[in-house]
Amino acid sequence: MMHQVIEIGRTQTPEAVLYWILGPLAVLAALGMVVVKKAVHSAILLAWVMISLAIFYIAQDAVFLGIVQVVVYTGAVMMLFLFILMLVGVESSESLTETIRGLRPIAIVAALGFGGLLISLIGHATLGRSFVGLTDANAGGNVQALAGLLFSKYVWAFEVVSALLITAALGAMVLAHNHRIIARPTQRDLATARFRGTSLAKAAGLPGPGVYALHNAVDVPALLPDGTPAQASISATLKARGDVIDSRPFQLSTIESEEE
Amino acid sequence: MNMLTSLMLLPLIGALLISAIPTTKSLLAKQMTLLTTILVAVGVIVMTLRFDRGKTDLQFVETHSWIPTFGINYSVGVDGIALVLILLSALLAPIVVLSGWNESNGGRWSAKTFYILVLVLETMIIGVFSANDLFLFYVFFEAMLIPVYFLIGGYGTGQRNAAAVKFLIYSLFGGLLMLASIIGLYVLSGEQGAHTFNINALSQLQMSSTTQNLLFLGFFIAFAIKAPLWPLHTWLPDAAQSATPGTSVLLLGILDKVGTFGMIRYCLTLFPEASKTFTPMILVLAVISIIYGAFLAIGQKDLKRLIAFTSISHFGFITMGIFAMTSQGHSGATLYMFNHGFSTAALFIVGGWMMSRRGSSKISDFGGLQRVTPVMAWTFFFAGMSSLALPGLSSFVSEFLVLVGTYTRYPVAAIIGTFGIVLAALYILIPIQRSLHGPTMPGNEALSDLNVREKIAIAPVIAVIIGLGFYPSPLLNIINPASTHTITQAGFTDPLAQIDPKAGK
Amino acid sequence: MTSNSLVYLIALPLFGATVLLLAGRRSDKWGHIFGTLMSASSFAVGVYLFIQMLGNSDGQRAMTQKLFNWISVGSFQVDAGLLVDQLSICFVLLITGVGTLIHIYSIAYMSHDLDRRRFFAYLNFFIAAMLLLVLGDSYLNLYVGWEGVGLASYLLIGFWNQKPTYATAAKKAFVANRVGDMGLSLAIMIAFATLGTVSFDGVKEHASHASTGALTAIGIMLLVAATGKSAQFPLQAWLGDAMAGPTPVSALIHAATMVTAGVYLITRSNFIFDLAPNAQLAVAVIGVITLLFGAIIGMAKDDIKKALAASTMSQIGYMVLGAGLGPAGYAFAIMHLLTHGFFKAGMFLGAGSVMHGMNDEVNMRRYGGLRKFMPITFATFGLGYLAIIGVPPFAGFYSKDKIIEVAFNAGGIKGITLGSAALLGAMITAFYMTRVVILTFAGSKRWDDKAHPHESPFLMWAPMVLLAFGSVASGFFFSRGDSLKNWLEPVVGGHMAHEAELLSPAVVSILALVLVVIGVGFAIIKYLLNEVPQVAPTDVTVFTKIARRDLLQDDFNEAVFMRPGQAITRGLQTADTTLIDGAVRGVGRFAVGAGNILRTTQTGFVRSYALWILVGAIGLVATIWVVTL
Amino acid sequence: MNPANYLYISALLFTIGAIGVVVRRNAIVIFMCVELMLNACNLAFVTFARINGNLDGQVVAFFTMVVAACEVVVGLAIIVTIYRSRRSASVDDASLLKR
Fold this sequence. Notes:
The complex is a heterotetramer.
Chain A (H helix, E strand, L loop, with lengths): L12 H23 L3 H21 L3 H26 L14 H22 L17 H9 L4 H22 L10 H10 L25 E2 L5 E2 L5 H6 L19
Antiparallel strand pairs in A: 1-2
Chain C lengths: L5 H18 L7 H24 L8 E11 L2 E9 L1 H24 L6 H20 L3 H19 L6 H32 L4 H7 L5 H18 L8 H4 L5 H10 L4 H8 L1 H4 L3 H24 L3 H20 L3 H31 L17 H15 L5 H14 L3 H30 L16 H22 L3 H10 L12 H24 L13 H7 L4 H47 L6 H23 L1
Antiparallel strand pairs in C: 1-2
Helix pairs in contact in C: 1-2, 1-4, 2-3, 2-4, 3-4, 3-10, 3-15, 3-19, 4-5, 5-6, 5-10, 6-8, 8-11, 8-13, 10-15, 11-14, 13-14, 13-18, 13-22, 14-15, 14-17, 14-18, 15-16, 15-17, 15-19, 15-20, 16-17, 16-18, 16-19, 17-18, 17-19, 17-21, 18-21
Chain D lengths: L3 H20 L3 H26 L3 H31 L13
Subcellular location (chain D): Membrane
Main location (chain D): membrane
Keywords (chain D): Membrane, NAD, Translocase, Transmembrane, Transmembrane helix, Transport
């Protein structure tokens, strides 16, 4: 082969370039993931690490896995993470000050020791000095070869894993299922509640934002018949962000009326 | 089907039937339990009659493969020693049920549960005495603890939980040591042939003396806890104090015999050399038990604890007889196990009636019962006489055989042990004087004497104690071949009388 | 020879006891008659056997009956067998004869007691056990009877056990007896270990082959047994307290029969003692110590029964001394035992009769001048008195003087010492027995007006008369032509070749008589010619005080055995809870404590658990690292 | 270049993930760190597959992905459930295991 390795235990130079660019980036991203305050940022950095890994997979003749990595991990799993983050609250950011005494120094020392040990182990190992390469194994195509293994040697594990997937799906459904504590209110119940409530103010339903207001926009509170802005008509999120534009009351001309 | 297996299944079937009846029908549960235990007793008596007294090997043998991977068999069979102990268990069980008719009332659970536990326990006991496979023995040995644990913890009095836990942990500790030894034997058997738990095969193993000593200790400590031998005895007084009288009878009368039975069956058979090595030490412990138990019994203020300490003294005698390595000592020890079962049963049963009537187990609360309840006082007195080994009662024969058998080989141990005779008089007569004699204490005037059920329950016990006192041959004939066989297997012969014709004058 | 009727001797009274105990209150009406009948029929069987024996020649008189094989393990073979020979038949007749008389006496004596039926059950049981003791053909069979009589004694001393002191006395008797029993069981063990058998025949046959050391050990242990049962020094303390039992019991058990079992045991074991001179000497020494000990206590006692009990102790001392003198003394020991059985039982019954008439008063200082009110009692008691102090031709003269004579002739210093002590004892006996008689029957009345002394009913005095007859005539009868000695010869061995006698019988008799007269004289001077105070004077010498305290026997036992025993018990109890159980609970506490410490690592924060996992992983990797490099 | 170099990256990533698991309190971030550790392992497997010249390592990596997917599904469902009742995704708040 023309691209035969020059020296045993060495791959071609382009891969080294790839490695030296993507590797540090991936490590940096991973570090960032641990360090940043906001969970969303962590998620995005993780996605970057995963994509880097996918590229590494492909570079190492694991084309199928690289694709799966992108589709399943970066696509599905990360989306799931982000989805849950939305559910739980995007804005939730934790303070990075440690509450459990002594945990962080021990953790960092332990992790450094662990990493150091691992790396020195790898360094001592004689791995890769004479690597075989997947050229033969992938001769009929990577996907075909994997499928051959999956449906012959690993068929039992494959089936078990499939059962696990189904179980996990079922389990997630069971866990996420919301048990009703009280009976679901009927329309009749809702109507009764509206009219028997503490005041009749909400009996007619809340106004949408922007109604009778200066602008017909979601960030402008509706005006009540007396000209005061109805704060309740605006989404709590907008309010919390401080994105409410105009909540000035409308000055009505005085009309003599005794009606209430 | 084999008799032993059927006899083991019978109480289990009874327990299953009882579990099917409603909780409220406690009377029916009692009647069914009584019926079952009587059936078992009849079965065991029939088996005893069919036992061939001339043979020394196991009889009624039955073997099925159980877990072939590990060479574990369901294998049962009895020799004379085991048969006598099974007979003891089977005879005492109906007496316990009948005498403790209302014992389950104060319990945490229903009467039904109590009797199910008793029946399950009976199965285990028969199993543990008849097992011929070390693994099977271990299973019964440990499983036996569970019904007792619940019987003490669920139906006892006072600090029953603490006592039950103490009992369980003590026994489990010993059991684990034994398990280690059992595994050791199993591994050795694999190195020297096929992996097996068969006792006969295991007794043929070649072992270095260190190995043998260590394995022996594992077994011996387990049995010494069960027996209980000083200084591993402290669970017994607590358990006896907290348990109901019926449970105490099962515990001290039958269950603890597994310890001394195990010493004969396993320690001596499997490790004859180690047994020889440790004999002096064990004899010292046995003698200490005799004296120590007696002294502590003298000092007790609680009737149940007192009986427990007398048992510690008696178990000292049994252990001494076993390790005297003479046929008199062995036969005496085995007979002692049987007789101690009955005399302790009598003490606990009658003492239990006294305590339940008076509502207290403190000896000082009694007094002058002889005047108020003559029959009860008489039976208690009789039980006491049996416990102090009055000649003419069964325990005398066994105690004397033990002493004589020990004397021929280890005179010093026997002489010190004989002091136990004097102390026995004290620890029996002091409580008898305090509880039966003297003026009637306030609170005792209206106690009722024994009723018909109680008389029926205690009568067989008294009959056995007197009968075997005068005519122990039926049991001795069963025991003798087995004990001689064990002695021979362990490599001993009886010492000869020391007549020296030349010294004559 | 074998006989089938031996077992009835025991079975009849045993049957009586069983029936009376099982029938309970239902037999209240006829229980006493039934019990007496059972005892009497046993006596009849005894007489029948005796006559049968008389018809046989000397060597053929012993009869055996094997009932069944009792214990059989290896070489330890014991049959339940009975043996009646010339020695046992004496006892059989004494036990059943005196026993029956005392049964009859008790019918009247106990007539007011609600539990009379139970009393008769115990008496029957005692007769059966005592017969087993003397009829057993091996030491182990004897042992059964030995403890049986101990039990009967316990039950009868504690017959009125609602009184705490009586219950304590019963317990004391049983425990002291148990100490003796320990000796007996050790003797049996040694016998089996050395001779390989425990039957009388077997031991007799093999004894000569055994070493002297072993025989001495057996002998000493038998002596221990005898001291326990026969209230000999140092196990004598229980006898005085045993007087708590009803008086017929004191007469039968604690005077005539049970307490003499030790003498029987030693005599029966003559084949051992004869080969173990040291043990035999020990027997004689114990006998002498006890005869003086009892006599000294007897001088100080005001309680009539306790005075008689001390006298019993002393008289048994004579018997033990006799038995310790070897073949020359056995027959006289037994003779004294039999005559003593008559006169002491008679005197105890007399004491009972006095108490019966005096509202159960036992203090002799509150008697006085009773001879007018109880002539028959006085007469019978007086005859017994003459017998015990050894006035010829009453029974005691023949038996006691013979023992003294044999003692003197035992040779050397030993003979002189033993003989002099025995003579001294005779003088003291004369003194204290005279004192008893004078205090009770002579002098002026010292009782208060509540007492109405009267003669006892026929059923009580008839047995006393019969026993008095025995105390008059038995000595003469036994010694005429050495009849008893010849009768016993096949069992206890014959006459030894007479060595040079130190003192001839006549000299001994004269010496003894002189001393007796001196003793009687002292007593007359002190108690008849001087006023006797109603309350014992307290300004007495320290010796009197010690004698009144039973020569400090109880104080000794208390200080040497009881208090240390109690201390040991308490100490062991503390050790048991603190050390042994403490160690056990310490293990538990250690586990809980360790758990508490380790539990602090369980913060509940999942992250700290994760950290520990990480640390564990480091450990794992490090291990791999170390192992692979 | 020696393919073993990938192993160094794998080790670094794994360690970083481990630190994250221990240090962070937000359950979702902890989860992401776990995913990072799994991915690091996958990289090692793929590298091993290449070094040894057979595809078994890749198959294992594939299974890891599937199992990781399962884990994420169930884990996130648990987080949601906890959040629903405790209004917090901090793992320190769910420390009921302590005494």
